[in-house]
Design a protein that fits this description.
heterodimer; A: 325 residues; alpha/beta; Rossmann fold; 2 domains; seven-stranded parallel β-sheet; five-stranded parallel β-sheet; globular; B: 264 residues; nine-stranded mixed β-sheet; two-stranded antiparallel ribbon; 7 helices; 27% helix
């Protein structure tokens, strides 16, 4: 199969989670020729992408990337190169470009693929979650004509980069002047401390936290555990915490070693973003809260009272360590 | 200013999965009896943003467009009770079986037939199948630019200034009409219908259009993507509830377990 993987690096550095695409391709278990089209990122890293051909589209980091330009560039690139399968992963630009490309090229599109069931001469069968994360569907698509898919984040392990560099072909970003819009300002909110995507420990608060003051405790615990702060939609909408910390279907998708939640009930929309965490610990007053169905440890308690005890105990533990040293 | 908002009737996304069942015949998730369906949450945000936008114009009208099979009129009339002017539907059993191409095609045809609209609002995705694709389909079919995940729209002369939410912040975009706008919870809570609104809405007729009137044949919208099976995944997780006579004891017990396992 002729495969095109699409990788978008909006922030200058190569997005290592995009390498999940190549583990997905391995799981297809068939003869492939893989071409990667990579927007932005460091060329030295891009040259090591585990694929057969690399096409690099340099980006001007001082100008906001317009998804319509990416769409137009891939559209033109595909006019001269035929692919059986085009694979995106989840990011702001891909979420815009992948469905639009599907309609523009009249190629079927399946988002959030989390598993491959089978591939034969007639059809592909994939699994994707529906209704938040509460149900799943087996989808079947004709495998004799092209297909666009977007893989679900964190469902596949990122593949290792190659040790050796491959030649990289450069093409320029094709600016789309029609059917577009003009980005006149971009404001990025960089949260202080460890970023959600990179954190091994995430402390997350929901409706039960009740206030921005409550989130100060969440931040304190995150600091003590060297972790990042997360939040549910209820907390973000109440403006107790910045939107950038939203975990869930419409926010960040994370898979830390420890996801420690306070006052989060576990609506399917939230679970979508955290269900791949290795250990979920949940604190909630309601023993029936659905977050417990996905947690390793549960604590039935008022989350604000409980977090105060956890913070105090960790401080005590740290003191004891200092004394022993 | 002619405005339309596309809405979808879905099972309530806040209902736990044990209150939902799968209609195997139609591969559809449906609420069990006594649990009602709702207008997709993000579509109500779209109605709210449309209402706010319309307040800038004396001659604004807002039409609601909804397609499906066996729609619940009390549910889909909610945007009328919030302040929209009229509602147009297309109902057909075949719509249950369609993929995003068929759905986008029918909506585009309705928009063409009842429009042209200056601005089209949609929810960013529907909570049942989470495809987040239909607005892009309408954009491509009708060749109208699309701005996704919009928080706010202001009018600046003949242009619109649009605040769009991105993962790590915000963007301001300058655009001309016509436009397709998708939005979600960043708009804030949709307004509550007033009693007067509810009474007015109940009197309004739903304008029904058939696939035939739109000139759409069953063959032209045959799905390319089939759902073979829907199911609730088995959850084998067993949570361990941390015991203790008070919160302090529970905290100590939890931390010692996490330490033992090397998680912290």
């Amino acid at each position: 199969m002729n495969i095109l993987s699409v990788i978008i690096n909006e922030n200058e550095t190569f997005n290592l989670s995009s390498l999940e695409i190549f583990s997905f391709i391995d799981e297809l278990k068939c003869e492939n020729k893989i071409t990667s089209i990579v927007f932005g990122g460091e060329k030295s890293v891009i040259a090591k992408i585990p694929c057969d051909e690399i096409v690099y589209v340099p980006l001007n980091s001082s100008v906001a990337l317009n998804p319509n330009d990416v769409l137009f560039s891939i559209d033109k690139f595909m006019d001269n190169n035929l692919f059986d399968l085009i694979i995106f992963q989840k990011d702001d630009i891909s979420n815009y470009v992948s469905p639009a490309l599907s309609f523009r090229k009249k190629i079927p599109y399946l988002p959030d693929v989390k598993k491959i069931i089978s591939k034969d001469n007639k059809s592909f069968k994939f699994v994707r979650p529906v209704h938040g994360e509460s149900a799943e569907g087996i989808y079947s698509v004709d495998s004799t004509s092209p297909l666009i898919i977007k893989i679900r984040k964190s469902s596949f392990e990122p593949k290792q980069l190659n040790e050796n560099e491959k030649p990289v072909n450069e093409i320029i970003l094709n600016k789309n002047l029609e059917k577009s819009f003009k980005i006149i300002e971009t404001k990025k909110i960089k949260p202080k401390g460890i970023q959600l995507d990179d954190a091994d420990v995430v402390i997350s608060g929901g409706r039960g936290v009740g206030s921005s003051e409550g989130f100060e405790k969440i931040k304190e615990l995150a600091n003590l555990l060297n972790g990042a702060v997360g939040a549910s939609r209820a907390a973000v909408e109440s403006e107790w915490i910045e939107t950038s910390q939203l975990v869930g279907l419409t926010g960040k998708w994370i898979n830390p070693a420890l996801y420690f939640t306070f006052g989060i009930s576990g609506a399917s929309q939230h679970l979508a973003g955290c269900i791949n965490s290795k250990n979920i610990v949940a604190v909630n007053t309601d023993p029936e809260a659905s977050i417990f169905n996905y947690s390793k440890y549960g604590i039935i308690a008022d989350c604000n009272e409980f977090i105060a005890e956890v913070i105090e105990e960790i401080k005590n533990m740290n003191k004891r360590v200092v004394q022993i040293v | 200013m002619k405005i339309c908002v596309c809405i979808k009737e879905v099972p309530d996304s806040d209902v736990p999965s044990n209150k939902l069942r799968i209609d195997q015949e139609n591969n559809k998730i449906i609420p069990i009896e006594n649990v009602s369906s709702i207008v997709n949450g993000f579509d109500l945000n779209a109605v709210e943003l449309a209402l706010r936008f319309s307040e800038n114009y004396d001659d604004a009208s807002i039409s609601i467009i909804s397609i499906g099979n066996d729609l619940t009129s009390d549910v889909i009339k909610k945007p009328l009770a919030m302040g929209a002017d009229d509602i147009i539907t297309c109902e057909d059993p075949i719509i249950d079986k369609l993929d995003i191409y068929g759905i986008s095609f029918i909506l585009s045809k309705i928009i063409e037939k009842t429009g042209p609209y200056d601005i089209i609002f949609c929810g960013r995705h529907a909570s049942d199948f989470d495809n987040a694709s239909t607005p892009f389909g309408i954009s491509e079919i009708l060749s109208i630019p699309l701005i996704n995940i919009v928080k706010n729209i202001t009018i600046k002369g003949k242009k619109l200034l649009i605040d769009r939410v991105i993962t790590d912040g915000f963007q301001t975009i300058e655009a001309d009409l016509p436009l397709i706008i998708t939005t979600g919870s960043q708009v804030g809570d949709p307004r509550y219908p007033t009693l007067r609104g509810i009474m007015d809405a109940s009197k309004k007729e739903i304008k029904k259009i058939t696939l035939n009137e739109l000139g759409i044949s069953e063959l032209s919208i045959a799905p390319k993507i089939q759902i073979e099976k829907l199911y609730f995944p088995e959850n084998e997780n067993k949570v361990e509830i941390i015991k203790g006579s008070n919160n302090k004891e529970k905290a100590i017990n939890l931390l010692s377990k996490l330490k033992e396992e090397g998680v912290i």
